[in-house]
Amino acid sequence: MQKTDVLVLGAGIAGLTTAIKLAKARPDLKITVLTKTNENESNTAWAQAGVAAAWDKKHDSYKKHVEDTLDAGDGLCVEKIVEIVVHEGPERVQEIINWGARFDKKETTDQYDLGREGGHSENRILHYKDITGWEIQRTLLEELGRYPNIEFQEHYFAIDLLTQHHMGYTIIRVTPGIECYGAYVLDKRTGTIETFLAKITVLATGGTGQVYKNTTNPAIATGDGIAMAYRAKGRVENMEFVQFHPTSLYNPAGENPSFLISEAVRGFGAILRTRQGEEFMHKYDPRGSLAPRDIVARAIDREIKQRGEDCMYLDCTHLDKEGFIAHFPNIYKKCLSIGIDPMKDFIPVTPACHYMCGGVRTDEMGRSSIDRLYAAGECTCTGLHGANRLASNSLLEGLVFAHRIVEDIIPRIDQFQIQTNIPDWDARGTTDPDEMVLITQGIKELKETMSYYVGIVRSNVRLKRANDRLYLQYKEIEALYNTTTISPQLCELRNLITIAYLIVRSASMRMESRGLHYTTDYPEKKGYVDLSIL
Ligand code: SIN
Question: Which of 241, 270, 339, 532 has the least C-beta neighbours within 10 A?
């Protein structure tokens, strides 16, 4: 049993920033950060383009950034949250700059070289080449190292959140006063399950991309936090809004994760074309290749299906070579490594699952519906993204909510005691699995189901079919979970099935097309539909 004041699950931008700020504000508190792999692996570290912020006060404004966010969100953003994130964002970005984060500047000036992405009416993306996430992760880890009251533990995989349920009480989704006391955590190196007790727990577990076959998310993105919060009877919302990035590198070898060709490349002037070189995006939107992501991803999907092709193409051949290489050295290198010279050849691209806009519902201070449980980053549904996230708003959201969570925790943490009335994990009755293939094949099956039936274009028939398949898989995996020794793969599959179920269920209930959710049965947008019942 381990005791800590604040338990932070996840080590991307939201988790690390929360830990740093807490440690700084309260050196007397013990803060424990757990990550299921190592310190360098998080969704944050994979972000290419950058952080959106209304930085350039001459051309840009908070108002424009708010409007772009609301426009992308297609009627489902919570306006107050958008205002908060946009207004507080630049100050939060300045903080990480003060901690050492580097963002590219225009040559010979002290001005930031602000990039552009789809749906943004101005250049407002702070970036570090095409590896902004890596730079932020590096900065945060360095800053984290300055605080002796932070304990950072790698290879610890949280399995379930502890609530009154673990003390023998019956809890249902509408039970009032559910509290979180920490988590059961699998030490991946020893295979033992430890009880981590905390006054406050913060979920910062990132995304869910691995629920699809083709995703830009790293292997860790298995929706663990959302699944745990859902099992603990927390409120989860907007799960139908899965963002597909329009341009992942088409790679017939089936690379996982798919390599991202950042939207910033289109911001730099690249144009989407068919194999024959025809520009097609203006058929779909006057903003052409720089229309918001949902529109571009759907257009590419449509062109691919209509033409019976495997991919569409990104044309960079007219762009300045030196500038391109300076901005996108990593993308350039990757393309060359598979025999494509972006300065001479079209880059083959296809949409890939990229971001989950839904998640654990939180309020403006990052509190979830479960008391003593906060959440920040991609695992949340704060209201910022609505039905479709505006590019590069997510790192900003992580920073702003980490700060707000700390502001909220500081004045209230001393009123809580660590709950010691929690039994240790009981592994009696379980045995080692005979065949790992039940799990590995299960993951493949799940990805197939989601990719074929719950992708960019949905329908009632497809959703029903997915639901039937998922129900079978759910029953099989629960039986396995209750009888075999816990492994990370088993837990991840279990979480992915929960995530898939939540996506299908939310998608089935939304009888309209809006933002990222498009269904052929209800192609029109209806009035506001409140689905906050999960
Ligand atoms: C990209 O670089 O295109 C991804 C940026 C984002 O998803 O915000």
Answer: 339
Atom of ligand 1 at shortest distance to CA of 391? 8
- Å from CA of 49 to ligand 1 middle: 5
Range of the domain at 509: 437-485+487-526
DSSP 425-440: P--TT-B--S-THHHH
Q: Work out how many domains the chain is built from and give that number.
A: 3
CATH of the domain at 453: 1.20.58.100
Provide the whole-model pTM.
0.96
**Among this protein's residues, is 293 annotated catalytic?**
yes
Catalytic pick among 26, 266, 293, 367: 293
**CB proximity list for 92: less than 8 A, separation 6 or greater:** 396, 399, 400, 403
Q: 158 and 233 in one domain?
A: yes
Q: Could you read off the pLDDT of 371-395 as tens digits, one per residue?
A: 999 999 999 999 999 999 999 999 9
Q: Is the CB of 49 under 6 A from ligand 1?
A: yes
Running DSSP on this structure, what letter comes out for residue 199? E
Could you tell me if the CB of 297 is within 6 A of ligand 1? no
Kindly report, residue by residue over 133-173, the tens digit of the pLDDT: 999 999 999 999 999 999 999 999 999 999 999 999 999 98
- Residue carrying structure tokens 């290489």: 325
